[in-house]
Structures are given as structure tokens and as C-alpha cells.
Amino acid sequence: MSGKPRLTYLNGRGRMESIRWLLGAAGVEFEEVYLETKEQYEKLIKDGFLLFQQVPLVEIDGMKMVQTRAIMSYIAGKHNLYGKDLKERALIDMYVEGISDLMQMILMFPFSPPDAKEKNLESIKERATNRYFPVFEKVLKQHGQDFLVGNKFSWADVQLMEAILAVEEKVPDVLSGFPQLQVFKSKMSNMPTIKKFLQPGSPRKPPPDAHYVETVLKIFKK
Amino acid sequence: MSTKPKLYYFNGRGKMESIRWLLAAAGVEFEEEFLETRDQYEKLLQGGSLLFQQVPMVEIDGMRMVQTRAILSYIAAKYNLYGKDLKERALIDMYVGGTDDLMGFILMFPFLSTEDKEKQRVLIVQKATSRYFPVYEKVLKDHGQDFLVGNNFSWADVHLLEAILMVEEKKSDVLSGFPQLQAFKARISSIPTIKKFLEPGSQRKPVPDDKYVETVRRVLRMYYDVKAN
Predict the structure, then answer these.
(1) What is the DSSP string of A32-98?
(2) How many Å separate Cα A126 from the centre of its chain?
């Protein structure tokens, strides 16, 4: 049996993408199993793999982990991406949770009804530019360091980088008012593990398309 | 200046209630400032206290912490309610994730229309009895210990008790098929700090009513309809 973590999810971003990013950033190789049919999903449940009958599932270090946050906290803790003490961890948690709220809007976007898509896109743009990005712009400006917390690369940096790129896919000029974030994005892109993750052929998944949405509904809709 | 944590939220449960539970379980005294007017909220915003313009906010150990999960994780770790190592923490995080999802269905309940409330009540009971409670019932049965993780009282136990009581408020006999959870509920409720929190006069908040909903809507200017899941 391989010692590599094994990810079970659909062949697309969804809630697993942040986990792929974090493992990628930590330089950890992993395997993936893709859910394509309802039968596969039901078998996983029947065989007792999914604690709350949900994916993401990550088999790691002898555990069958579910719950996205739990999985990421574990990976961050294991690979020294969680700060050096309780207070740094508190900062990282605050930043990650805030970004996660923004990412949630992007996650749900492909599933919005056609007549709500424009409004939802506007909300994503508004929240990114008025609520979330200004916070990180200010954090970076105030301490002048390369990384968000404790002058060291952490989970918070990975999560922010993922969010910036995800929002840019929807709003290409979103960073125009955020010079610090532009520099941050560039620095992150050049970190070896992240650079590798951003290259074609990496486990990074493309933006969700109609086929992905269709697969989600087919597998999970009752 | 007081060194007690200070909680900023509405005078009601919402997202702050899990934090009140955890502080109380840890035996930590805390103060509360209740948001009642839009002006108060705007003053907090302008003062830069709310990192993402939202409450809950907890002033603790020199930090103005926001994001419920971040606050709870910090408190759990500080007061030794987060397991003894990374793997126990992973289990606690998974279990808390589940009870959090379950309580999420209840969180929006007061803001639903009367018709949607009834549908949601059914959904809450169905999720509790078919997805969540069986998991914790099995965990307790399999290891036969008093607590969910590592034979030690933890955040996971506090969160599960809170979830059980909240679901019981929607259906009083919901634990009838779960003997382990019944025993768990009795055990955890009799832990001195929890027992105290469950007594009248504690900082535990009552089931949200119309006044609470009105206050939240007014302060946050949240007048849109909340849809059920």
C-alpha cells in the first residue's frame, strides 16, 4: 500500500481543490480516485468510508478523514504550515476562515440558476474588493513581510493565493486596486512547489464546467 | 481593564452560542456586549474591530478574534480541550465539523417563513437521526468510554451536547433510538461547569424568538428572505 494520501472526490475542484492546493504547496504527492457514478458513491457509504456520508474523503496516515477543514488543519499541522504557536495559529485560522467564506461563494456559483448568475458574480466581485482583499492588502502593507503570518510560509498564504486566482478567473482585473496582493501573487507563483502546482499536468483542476455540474447533480441529487 | 474574554454579538444564540458553551465548559468567565442598534454595529465597523465586518467578535488575550471556528479552536487549544496530539485533534475536528453542519440547519431556522419552518424541522430531525447521531452513537459504543476522543473531555463532547439539546428542542424524543447518546447527555450534563451553564441565570441564551430575529435584521439590515436548504 502506498504511503501517499489518497483523495476521493469528483474530477473537479469543489471542496477538494483547497486540499489539493495545500498538499501541492507542502510538496506532498498524492493519489486521486474520481467519483463518476451514483453507484460508486453509494458503495463508499455502504463500505463505511464516509463518516457523514459525504466527500471530500482523504485517506491519510491510517485515517479516513472527512470534513474539509479537519483535513486541511491536519495537513497544515503535519507539514509545519500552521504557525509556531497558538496565537499564530489563531491568525492563520481567522484568515483562512475569511477566505473560505469568499471561496464558498465561488463554489456555489456554477449551481446558481441562470437568472441569478449575474447578481452572484457581482456579489463575488463586491465581497472580494470590499471585504476580503482589503484586509490582506493591509496586513501585508503593515508588516511589509512576504508572508501573511509570522514571516513564514503558511496555510493562510496558500489559501489566499488560491482565492486570488479563483476570483481573477471571474473578475480579471480584480487586483487592480491592490498592489501588495499583486506582489504577493507573483512571489507565491515563484515558490517552487506552487510553481509546480500551477504548471500543466499538475493535479490542479480546471474551472467547473457544465459536465462537472451535471456529474455533481447526478451523483448527489436525491 | 478586565482580562476576561469579551463577546460582541446579539443578545441571542446565533453563531456565538457555541463559543459561550465552550468558554463555560472550560470554566472561563466572560463578559458580553449585546448589539441592539445599527449605530452600535456601525461604530464597531468604523473602529476597525471587525476584521471582515462581521460578528461574532471576541476580545481575548489582546486579540480581537473573529470567525467562529477560529475562536473556538483557540479556546479549545488554550484550555486543553483539543486532544493530546495531531491525530486526536483530527478526530475532534471531524466530529465538530459534523455537529457544526447539523447545527447549521438549526441556525437559519428562526429566519424562515412559517411554512419553510415546518419543512426545515422535518429536515433537521431526519439529518440528526440518519446522518449525525448514528455516528456518535457508534463511536461511543465502539470504545465504551465516557468521552468521544482519547478518553478525555474535549471540545467535541461540548459541541455534541449542545447539538443534542438543540435538536431536542425541535423534537423532544429524538434520542429515543440512541441509548449511548442518552447516557452521554446525562454524563456530560452533570460535569460541574456544564451543569452550571445549564442552570437558570447562566449566560446560555434561550431559543431565538421574533424579537431576536427582528434585532438581527435591523442591525445587519438583513431584510431578504432566508431560503431553507
Answers:
(1) EEE--SHHHHHHHHHTT--TTS-S-EEEETTEEEESHHHHHHHHHHHTT-S-SSHHHHHHHHHHHHH
(2) 20
Q: Domain range for residue B134?
A: 86-190
We report the CATH number of the domain holding residue B126 as 1.20.1050.10
Cα A34 versus chain centre, distance: 17
Report the gap between the CA of B136 and the closest CA in chain A (Å): 10
Q: pLDDT tens for residues A113-166?
A: 999 999 999 999 999 999 999 999 999 999 999 999 999 999 999 999 999 999
A102 in the same domain as A120? yes
Q: Does B78 touch chain A (CB under 8 A)?
A: yes
Whether residue A217 lies inside any domain: the answer is no
**Cross-chain CB nearest to A93 (options B73, B86, B131):** B73
DSSP secondary structure letter of residue A11: S
What would the grid cell of residue B113 be?
Answer: 417563513
The answer to whether the complex's ipTM is over 0.90 is yes
- What are the CA-CA distances from residue B129 to residues A43, B122, B135, B164, B222 (Å)? 21, 11, 10, 11, 32
CATH number of the domain encompassing residue B42: 3.40.30.10
Any A CB within 8 A of B73 CB: yes
**pLDDT tens profile B11-48:** 999 999 999 999 999 999 999 999 999 999 999 999 99
Asked if the structure places residue B1 within a domain, the reply is no
